[in-house]
Amino acid sequence: RINGQRLWDSLMEMAQIGATQKGGCNRQALTDLDKQGRDLFVKWCEDAGCNVTVDEMGNIFAQRPGTGSKGGPDLPPVLTGSHLDTQPTGGKFDGVYGVLAGLEVIRTLNDANVETAAPVEVAVWTNEEGARFSPAMIGSGVWAGEFDLDYAYARQDKEGNTFGAELERIGYKGQAPAKPRPLAAAFEVHIEQGPILEAEEKTIGVLSGVQGMNWYDLTLIGQPCHAGPSPMEGRRDPFMGLHRILDQLYKLAEEHAPWARATFGDIRVEPGSRNTVPEKLVLAVDLRHPDQKTLDAMDQRFREIAARIAEETGLEHEIREEWRSPAVAFDTKCVEAVRSAVADLGYSNKEMVSGAGHDSVYISRVAPTSMIFVPCEKGLSHNEAENAEPKDLEAGANVLLHAMLKMANP
Amino acid sequence: RINGQRLWDSLMEMAQIGATQKGGCNRQALTDLDKQGRDLFVKWCEDAGCNVTVDEMGNIFAQRPGTGSKGGPDLPPVLTGSHLDTQPTGGKFDGVYGVLAGLEVIRTLNDANVETAAPVEVAVWTNEEGARFSPAMIGSGVWAGEFDLDYAYARQDKEGNTFGAELERIGYKGQAPAKPRPLAAAFEVHIEQGPILEAEEKTIGVLSGVQGMNWYDLTLIGQPCHAGPSPMEGRRDPFMGLHRILDQLYKLAEEHAPWARATFGDIRVEPGSRNTVPEKLVLAVDLRHPDQKTLDAMDQRFREIAARIAEETGLEHEIREEWRSPAVAFDTKCVEAVRSAVADLGYSNKEMVSGAGHDSVYISRVAPTSMIFVPCEKGLSHNEAENAEPKDLEAGANVLLHAMLKMANP
Ligand SMILES: NC(=O)NCCC(=O)O
Ligand SMILES: NC(=O)NCCC(=O)O
After folding, report:
1. What is the H or E stretch that residue B123 is in?
2. Nearest to residue B126, comparing CAs of B104, B106, B153?
3. Three-class SS of residue B220?
4. Any ligand 2 atom below 6 A from CB of B192
């Protein structure tokens, strides 16, 4: 069993880096605070006897060596991990928990003097949130071959700083190539970020996959004119199209209830003057569904709705696809390892699909992968009030420990 | 008659300061470019023999002395003027025309060696647009006693620069107190910024007043949560309220068609992350109507709509009143001076009310005031494509000359 108190203390110590007034965390990717968080993690791993390497995407890997196959070569490692970056108004557990639960597994193995055949390894993936640099999960994405390194380095935050320059600035542009090595298995433990486990009073979510998600920028272009003398009739006002498109997209999500999601996290306006009808609105659109066919149908409908309403309101429109992350089914052997770890430990549980994207989405393309969820308070995440019970966090880390041991000692 | 070519040449020379790629102007209040425009105007006035003073709001007054009452003291001046600042994507005529038409009147009097009993004066009012610093018409507003000097100095642009600091920085914080002196009359000539004169093929608008206008910040506060795992059902999403409020406010304007206006020039979102339901939206709302009673009724309905929809969508809301400019009726003697100048000159004309706010709104509180409009192409303003015919601009300046002469030689 892992040490729940130590895990909690580490979480609380890490949460001080970027702590916000409302009790959350603002430790966005590749900021000075992200560097501080990384430095603390690296120090903890070195104290635990791990070999730490950093790749050219700033992904950090901390390995506890295995004993190898009897008389033979080293075995491929069993990996776990998640991310240390947060939303601008994020919580103390999203991502961080998966990283520190991995560290707690290693500390527990050290305490008990347990050796494993395969190495056990904890990863910190860069910029999982996609909040500062879009898209999400770009560290694991480059590593798994989904994105080019140059594409990643060229991503810009709202101030125009590039990912590459910021990575270099904080001193985490490493030497190792960002590409996959053979892995025996990969696991990730995470807070659910939704209300299901809490509502059904289950301790552990056994994940079979991740829903599909599409990100877009919808641009509506009208004709700027004066707020006073310009008659309402002849206006080509992007807000006149916007409100009708929002209405239709919320209805689209309702048609595919309860699983479909439609979210608008950001909007930009030009020129942004009180007494001028805007020339341009750019809306960030996030559409999701666990069933890829349904998500594809939603994508189609979104395009039709935007085109029709833009036409009816005299606007030009453009849909730029920012990111597509198709629905994922996890590796059956890894799912089974989690299932049997939960059974061994006797925790109440539920089989489920993740509503959020995670680094495991990309890792699953190149290695057998699955995930473990624990409940979070009121299902609230991407919110400074994000919270989780120490006993649930402890349970999740115990499941992680047992699942990793199963795969590390085949 | 004024010199139409000289007026046009001065307009085009001024338009080079802050010229945009699309043929418009970006010379926002208290920027370096505003300073360049002011410097050029002051030089022109000094070349024309005027005495130039600058007040503590940066309002510039260029006076051509009068001969005084026979054997008696100086007479109160006849004032004209407008503003040199533009929208971020503004045109070459809005405001600038009124300033340079005033200068052209003085140049014409000089050419003809005409003396007037009362002094003739041209004013440049600071920050009329309200685009960089809200509210609009703050230079004339402080001068006329609508706003305190301290309130004006403390206004901030989007980067947090204050009006007072920027005024000082560009060297236009003058010594003269920003307060009214006795004036015989005040006139302002301006492009219509709407489509009526062009549609009805009239050269001159004889203005009887200005419509009422209200500016608000509507804030909608929800609960940030994750775009993926959070069910649509329980969300408190500011965009869910926003689209319904926009819909209702456009309907409200329709109910009071054809004169009511509802414009949303700006929107801000927090935290502005793609995969997070926003905590907060702040929408700039501009409501107008020429009839003050109707505008008051619209104000009431706006408050009811926002409160009801916020309640129905589980949001908190706040309405901050940014600015109120009640409907204005101009001085009958000044309106009559314009009417008879138009009759003398034989231009086609129409009596009308201004849809836009102008410095004359505030000047009219402390001096007999009225305005003259000329057509602009397709009624387009607050747009880089803003355009006007040289012959119409010439006609407007001739009306200004004759109206001013009537009042300056009583
Ligand atoms: N877990 C998490 O917040 N992931 C970010 C990617 C997403 O938007 O789902
Ligand atoms: N003329 C003009 O653009 N005035 C600004 C004030 C308003 O919004 O009407």
Report:
1. strand B120-124
2. B153
3. strand
4. no
Distance from CA of B204 to the nearest CA of A (A): 16
Positive or negative CA dihedral for B87, B92, B94, B97?
Answer: positive
Closest CA to A400 of A263, A159, A252, A206: A206
Closest CA to A136 of A26, A28, A291: A28
Residue A289 and residue A148: Cα distance in Å, rounded?
26
Q: What's the rounded Cα separation, in Å, for the pair A46 and A40?
A: 10
Is residue A79 within 8 A of residue A363, CB to CB? The reply is yes
**Which residue is it, tokens 């009624």?**
B379
* Cross-chain residue pair B257–A355, CB shorter than 8 Å: no
Pair A215, A264: CB distance under 8 Å: no
Rg (CA), chain A: 23
Alpha carbon of residue A79 to chain centroid: 17
Phi, psi torsion values for B407, nearest 5 degrees: -80, -25
Q: Is A358 in the pocket of ligand 1 (CB under 6 A)?
A: yes
Is residue B406 classed as helix, strand or coil in its secondary structure?
Answer: helix
pLDDT at B220: 98
CA distance A127 to B228: 17
**Percentage helix, strand, coil for chain B under 3-state DSSP, each rounded to 5:** 35, 25, 40
Cα separation, A274 vs B218, whole angstroms: 12
Round to whole Å and give the CA distance between B404 and B368. Answer: 12
CB A305 within 8 A of CB A297: no
Q: How many CB atoms lie within 10 A of CB B168?
A: 14
Low-confidence ranges of chain A (pLDDT < 70): 70
Does residue A223 contact residue A236 with C-beta atoms inside 8 Å?
Answer: yes
pLDDT digits (tens, 9 = 90+) for A314-349: 999 999 999 999 999 999 999 999 999 999 999 999
- Which atom of ligand 2 lies at the shortest distance from residue B356's CA? 9
Alpha carbon nearest to ligand 1 atom 3, residue: A129
Residue B374 Cα to ligand 2 middle (Å): 16
The pLDDT, as a whole number, for residue B364 is 98
The one-letter amino acid at B129: E
Pocket lining: A227 vs ligand 2, CB cutoff 6 Å: yes
pLDDT tens, position by position, B169-219: 999 999 999 999 999 999 999 999 999 999 999 999 999 999 999 999 999
Which residue, A223, A214, A243, is CA-closest to A305?
Answer: A243
Segments in B1-79 forming alpha helices (H): 4-15, 32-47
